[in-house]
Amino acid sequence: MLSANFLTPQQIVKELDKYIIGQHEAKRNVAIALRNRWRRMNVTSDIQSEIVPNNILMIGATGVGKTEIARRLAKIADAPFVKVEASKFTEVGYVGRDVESMVRDLVEQSVNMVKARKKEEVQEKAAQAVEEIILDALIPPMRSKTAGFPVTTEESNGAPASDIELNERTRNLFREKIKNGEPEDRKIDTHLKQNSGPGVGMIGAGMMDDVSMMNLQEMLSGMMPKKAKKRKVTVGEARKFLLEEEAAKLVDMDEVKEEAIRKAEDAGIIFIDEIDKIASGSGKKGGSGPDVSREGVQRDLLPIVEGSTVNTKYGVIKTDHVLFVAAGAFHTAKPSDLIPELQGRFPIRVELTNLTKEDFVRILKEPKNALTKQYQALFDAEGVTVSFQEAAIDEIAKAAFEFNLEMENIGARRLQTVMSRLLNEFLYDVPDKIFANSQIEITREMVIEKLKGLVANKDLSEYIL
């Protein structure tokens, strides 16, 4: 169930604005689609199950923000998210069931998310159990010779009460030390579980489908007992390994699987990139060749997008309410080249605009993960301060924009090429020649000088080709 304080469409757009420049129409549509999921979950009448998501088709050149919008959307919604490239389904060796693999990947992602949250919930209890295991390794409790249990003063079989009390006082003292993280570097002997052997291979498994294969391998590996290997490790290392083991023991996997299936069904997002690659460019029907193969992929995708049941190793999932976001550049094909049934499953169409030089300037400065901020963080790690003059940023944006015009337009990704060319020499010299506490200021003149080589390389490559 999505939380009651779920973001409104305008709040979702504001969150997307922190990372993606422009493309307001696309952000607006995905924000409405996301909020509609919360609205559907809060419908009380029987019509709730009839409300289907409005899948979105984003049309735009590479590097304009299509994938980033979908990825950020999933993070905002705390939803399982899977990205697939439709072109992979046209490769040699493609079989129809491969299309279902994206749904199985979605469930796997959902299971991992739910499991991680459940482990967080039991972290405190697991930490207490780990402290006791480490304490037993450091100061073993006094035990009865007959029963093997910790003894009390009454059943000490003649052992001096003072020894038992001293042992308990010492254990309490070390318990506090462990809580405070004092003996982290001290070595202890502990038993860490490990798999009994490598994965089980199956001869002749090619006749089995993916789910049967996964279930059989899981069953066989479950029959193999996990061995506990005795190792001498530091308290800090033991704490890390044991915490994972103890937390896993406290998590009910049946509960995790049920919740993960529900989460994938009600909140899952599947992003199908390069959907234009499976559109028939000619628009002709019938015949043979690559167009028939592409149409076959579309027909295999159709039931998944329409809503069907898919078997996974965690159970059966219905895709009726999974949100599908498709994207493509559509340079050689048109959205109308997709088969009509598939077109109908993506009723919301958004055209993303090409990025301008002004957009590049904003991309370099405004997002929380802007490239200038990323490089400043890398230099900060070495104790070096890097600053960019406004004129330098303007020149970087201008260069990236012009390279996109003259060569293939790869959108904002061109900025990474330019920034790498500009700063790689500095990155190479730190810390051997450029020492900590140094300051580097990137000027317009420096940008022009550094990018001269990039222009020369471009001209040379065009000449050779």
Blueprint (SSEs and pairs):
Layout: H1 9-17, H2 24-41, E1 56-59, H3 66-77, E2 81-85, H4 101-121, H5 123-138, H6 161-179, E3 187-194, H7 210-223, E4 227-234, H8 235-250, H9 253-267, E5 269-273, H10 290-306, E6 309-312, E7 315-318, E8 323-328, H11 340-344, E9 348-351, H12 357-365, H13 371-380, E10 385-388, H14 390-406, H15 413-429, E11 439-442, H16 444-464
Parallel strand pairs: 1-8, 1-9, 2-5, 5-8, 10-11
Antiparallel strand pairs: 3-4, 6-7
Provide tags for this entry.
Rossmann fold; 465 residues; 3 domains; flat; five-stranded parallel sheet; alpha/beta; two-stranded antiparallel sheet
The number of distinct structural domains comes to 3
CATH superfamily of the largest domain: P-loop containing nucleotide triphosphate hydrolases
Strand order of the largest sheet: 2-5-8-1-9
Percent helix, as a range, is 40-55%
Compute the gyration radius: what is it? 29 Å
If you had to describe this structure to a student in words, what would you say it looks like?
The protein is of the alpha/beta class and 465 residues long. 51% of the residues lie in helices and 12% in strands. The protein has 16 helices and 11 strands. It has helices spanning 9-17, 24-41, 66-77, 101-121, 123-138, 161-179, 210-223, 235-250, 253-267, 290-306, 340-344, 357-365, 371-380, 390-406, 413-429, 444-464; strands at residues 56-59, 81-85, 187-194, 227-234, 269-273, 309-312, 315-318, 323-328, 348-351, 385-388, 439-442. The strands form 4 sheets. The chain has a 5-stranded parallel β-sheet with strand order 2-5-8-1-9, sandwiched between helices. Strands 3-4 form a two-stranded antiparallel ribbon. The protein has a two-stranded antiparallel sheet with strand order 6-7. The two termini are 56 Å apart. Mean pLDDT is 82; it is low at 144-148, 152-158 and 200-207.
